[in-house]
Amino acid sequence: MNNIIMHVDANSAYLSWEAAYRLQKGATVDLRNIPSVVGGDEQSRHGIVLAKSIPAKKYDIKTGEALFTARKKCPNLVVAPVRYELYMMCHNAMINILRDFSPKVQVYSIDEAFLDYTGMQAVHGDPVSAAYKLKNRIKNELGFTVNVGISTNKLLAKMASELKKPDMVHTIFPEEIKQKMWPLPVKELFMVGRATAPKLYRLNIFTIGDLANADPELLKYRLKSWGKLIQDYANGIEDSPVSENARPPIKGIGNSTTIPFDVDSMDEARKVLLSLCEMVGMRLRQAGFSAKLISVYLRNSDLQGKSHQRKYEAATDDTYNIFNLSAQLMEELWTGEPLRGMGVQVSELVPNDILQVSMFDIPNEKRRLLDQSIDDIRMKHGPKSVVRSIFINSGLSPITGGVIEDFKMMSSRF
Amino acid sequence: MKFSCNKQDLMEAINIVQKAVMTKATIPILEGIYIETNDSLKMVGNCYDMGIECSINADIQQKGSIVLNSRMFGDIVRRLPNSEVFIQVKPNFNVIIECDNSYFEIKGLSAEGYPMLPTVEEEQKISVSQTSLRNMIRKTIYAISNDENRKILTGSLIEANDGDLSMVALDGFRLAVAKVMIKEDTNFKAVIPGKNLTEIYKILEQSDKDVKITLSKNQALFELEQCRIISKLLEGEYMNYKNFLPEQFETNIVVDVSEIIESIERASLITNDDKRYPVKIVIEDNKMLITSNTDVGISKEELLININGNNMTIGFNPKYLLDSLKVADEEKVEIFFSSSVGPCIIKPIEGDSFVFMILPVRIK
Hints:
The structure holds two protein chains of two kinds.
Chain A: E1 5-10, H1 13-24, E2 36-38, E3 51-52, H2 54-58, H3 67-73, E4 78-80, H4 84-101, E5 105-109, E6 112-116, H5 121-124, H6 127-142, E7 146-151, H7 154-161, E8 169-171, H8 177-181, H9 196-202, H10 208-212, H11 216-223, H12 225-234, E9 252-263, H13 266-287, E10 289-300, E11 305-316, H14 319-333, E12 339-351, E13 354-356, H15 365-381
Parallel strand pairs in A: 2-4, 7-8
Antiparallel strand pairs in A: 1-6, 1-7, 2-3, 5-6, 9-12, 10-11, 10-12
Chain B: E1 2-6, H1 7-18, E2 32-37, E3 41-46, E4 50-56, E5 59-62, E6 64-69, H2 70-79, E7 84-89, E8 94-99, E9 102-107, E10 124-129, H3 130-140, E11 155-161, E12 164-170, E13 174-181, E14 188-193, H4 194-203, E15 210-215, E16 219-223, E17 227-232, E18 251-256, H5 257-267, E19 279-284, E20 287-293, E21 298-304, E22 306-309, E23 312-316, H6 318-326, E24 332-337, E25 344-348, E26 354-358, E27 361-363
Helix pairs in contact in B: 1-2, 3-4, 5-6
């Protein structure tokens, strides 16, 4: 029996998640229908475009460009802030629905996952109708759309989900490769990027079909083993398993900020650090991990940076702990020079559902509940709905950060 | 300086004092072994954290002293034939080593400036058999912490109290206490660095001969028949470990040690090298189920046991359970569980020669 693999990909994830969230909160305008982008802060007016709506695309706004130039292209552009915790929530909700369709789910990135549907036909019916069920459940229950690609391996499933968007189910079974995949431009093939495509063009390879039928010796000569890999991909050959939690998809969580003025007192530095830790703690808990390694980064007004890290035997996800440990690291590292940038990063994550209990860090149940309640309030009413009183009249932001870092990036093999 | 001695005796002594010689030091003399002939042959290795002095029988023809590079000297002697070794120091500090048909002449260093072992003021002294001390170290040393943030826990607490001598190690996730009786009615407390205890363990023999332990303010002296070992002490207050030991338990069971070791070992075969996966223990109906569920697969083990108290489901890092059970040296032990997220305690059925406490893994 052939394997049945599905690839589920959220359509313009950050933007549609934000849009769905706003609609749930009673917004009347759907961000997806107006020129809008996700990235940076509307007020401080800096940052880059992380995701864009289809109407924004019409203004030639590109992912990765500065908000400043994007605004020039479209003056009435709506800019939504980056909200990591919302994305984690949507990600988790999406994965939970996927798990209803098969126990074998591989989280591939924050907005993509593979699902091994092999043998599940008896429960949820034929793959295509199951994919429609899956897609529609996410649309109806969570309010955003996904593309589902179906095939016999992960590569073809992923290629299938990349076909026409949004809100579609596609198949590329081996017998369909010729018709559905080969006519596509070669740069659309997984793992053929900006570096490889021009090399292929020089060999007169412009479509995936050209690559599939190219002389293997020529490819080997020009591209070494890479040539064999992408030619296999062009022929739909790939056989890696759907490996659920092979390792946590997140390696670390970091948060950093550039401060618009010189920080030169310990008191101020601690406050900036606290505002960074608030977000780190929240993200860590949202992701369901505790961290063992804490690292602090400082940058002075000459833009020189230095960092200091320490590994702790007991993992923690407690904001108060993370702040105290990182404040200690900062005090050891800082020699008093004026600071313009600070960062906190936590890594060596262990999942909270199998956490080794420690004698020293006896989990403070009260503080855990407090963190949890504050997280809930902030999720519901915005990050600044509850702030620590120490920030009142301090002129400093009580919570800093927003940009997603360290989610496992696409790697060359699945 | 001129002497001769048996190769085996010499090698044994070198092996012992080498444990206290730095392999890489800023000055060459610290990478050396100090050799002195007086009434007997004495050798010293010293790295400040620990110093060892060893005496051996030798035929001494001329008194004197010299320092020889520890690795070089050790490597040469190790490969000499099993015969009498003749050693002689020339006025230019060159050392001649002869044995049967072998001849070496290697450079030595003036013994002047070698850090000799400090004298330990005899304040409090106890004695215990080598076997007992060896066992105490073995039963506790695995629980020493590697966490340099809590330096004091990288050592073992050695505590004499009204005729009891106990050794304690803890790393935050488990705690091990071993106890023996001593004749002396002394009271003292000291924390000895774990890596020194590891070396002392290797020097101790399975024998009823005594080892005398003397404590001063910042040093501990271990005296054996042929050698003296001085260890630096770790500064600071050791944790009040007794506070961590729970007194009330929900469940206790009696298990056969080798049976449970084998079961846990089998169950943990499918945990990955990163030791991330716990084993789950379910206790009910006079049975103990040991299961593990990892990305590789699942496994299940069943043991018949005697239960006292409530049913219990609890997770553990299998390594922690195995480390303790393997040094229990008992046929059966009693295991006490305080709760499914609280510490568990392993004790012998009779007596109090050890107490092992292990904290569980919270599983959902």
